[in-house]
Specification:
By secondary structure, the chain is mostly beta strands. The protein has a domain of about 80 residues. It is built from two helices and 29 strands. Strands 5, 6, 7, 8 and 9 form a five-stranded antiparallel β-sheet that branches. A four-stranded antiparallel β-sheet has the order 1-2-3-4, with no helix packed on it. It is globular.
Length: about 375
């Protein structure tokens, strides 16, 4: 049908044809109709009585840090989570208490909680009745990163590096401490792993004003071989960190570093990192980082935006989702292979699953702090 024939059609018939055409395009997600409408947010019967500060995910459970304590959720179906146990951390062991567990690490049945200056261990083997195991131990007066691996807890605070033995989680034992203001001045993020090729255990740290044994060029990267827990060795690497709030996560033989942009290193040979790939986003400064099964999530420092990447191809990481109006801590979210769990303070817990770029919106659910649902 050419334009002459269209002009000859009666107005009502022409309007009907246009309506049918637009409806067909919308159903197909075709061009010209914009992103598909977001699906309705499922109703849940879960609410929280205080701000949601943190979340850690392992298997079918999410451990949610509130100002008042820790809630355990069964996330077998992440869009229909089930509330299980609750631990009131404000009671604790006098004179200490953790009123706002801002940092969580989970390994097996052991949960480590911290508010930045105190740490404690929790037995979560019974998800309905979590039990506080250890007295709170003060290690710093400043919020710092830590990592739990194989029942050893690695902590960095200003000028100090600690290793704690948690094999008896009722008695937190410090087995190593190194004071070095030059090395541990300002570390923002850390991770640890037992290397899958050489079998040794390494701790990786990044910080904006971190110094290396070679000097203090600004931001830098620090790596420690902690296989011998009482005599760790520092392994210098020629990696320069220039971002404001760098972050690092390690998975198998790759290190992912957020340094305003995303950079991926091949660490098959721990003595010589090789650049594998990188990604940058116009008008964005990445902060925070979580990685799981070739899925990566990072936040934007200023835009209340969360980005998701597929990193199956390390050389060319692929952006698969952009979530806006994310108002939580940019470094406190957690991921598994299917979903991102975002603590959004007074807005509650936001769960995003099966996310794709428009026109296919993510499936999502909000667990609000109060009896109100928050729409996007």
């Amino acid at each position: 049908m050419n334009r002459t024939h269209l002009r000859l059609l009666p107005p009502l018939l022409l309007a009907a044809l246009v309506a049918l055409l637009l409806a067909g395009l919308a159903a197909a997600g075709g061009p010209g109709v914009g992103p598909a409408a977001a699906p309705p947010i499922p109703e849940t019967n879960i609410t929280f009585d205080s701000d949601v500060l943190s979340v850690a995910v392992q298997g079918n459970y999410a451990y949610v840090g509130l100002e008042s304590g820790v809630v355990i959720l069964d996330i077998t179906n992440p869009l229909q989570p089930v509330r299980r146990g609750f631990l009131d951390t404000s009671v604790g062991f006098p004179p200490y208490a953790i009123t706002s567990p801002r940092y969580l690490q989970i390994e097996g049945d052991l949960l480590v909680i911290s508010n930045g200056s105190l740490i404690a261990t929790v037995d979560v083997s019974d998800s309905d009745h979590p039990t506080l195991l250890s007295p709170y131990q003060q290690y710093t007066t400043y919020a710092v990163p830590f990592k739990l691996l194989n029942r050893y807890l690695y902590i960095v605070e200003t000028g100090k590096f600690h290793i704690f033995d948690l094999h008896d989680p009722t008695q937190i034992q410090e087995i190593y401490k190194l004071d070095d203001e030059r090395l541990f001045a300002d570390i923002d993020s850390m991770d640890a792993e037992t290397h899958p090729l050489d079998g040794r255990t390494y701790v990786y740290m990044v910080g904006y004003s971190l110094c290396s044994p070679a000097g203090c060029p600004g931001g830098n990267f620090l790596m420690m071989d902690v296989t011998n827990l009482t005599n760790p060795q520092i392994l210098p690497q020629a990696i320069s960190i220039m971002g404001v709030s760098p972050a690092i996560r390690v998975e198998q033989t790759y290190a992912y570093i957020i340094d305003s942009d995303l950079t991926i290193y091949d660490i098959s040979d721990p003595s010589s990192f090789q650049l594998a790939g990188n990604y940058y986003e116009d008008n964005a400064i990445f902060v925070g980082l979580e990685v799981s099964n070739n899925k990566l999530a990072t936040g934007d420092q200023y835009g209340s935006v969360l980005y998701q990447f597929d990193t199956t191809d390390k050389v060319h990481p692929k952006k698969i989702a952009v979530h806006r109006n994310v108002n939580g801590y940019p470094d406190a979210f957690s991921v598994n292979s299917d979903c991102v769990f975002i603590p959004e303070k007074e807005r509650g817990l936001h769960i995003l699953c099966e996310a794709q770029l428009p026109p296919h919106p993510p499936v999502q659910v909000w667990l609000p702090m109060v009896q109100a649902r928050f729409e996007r």
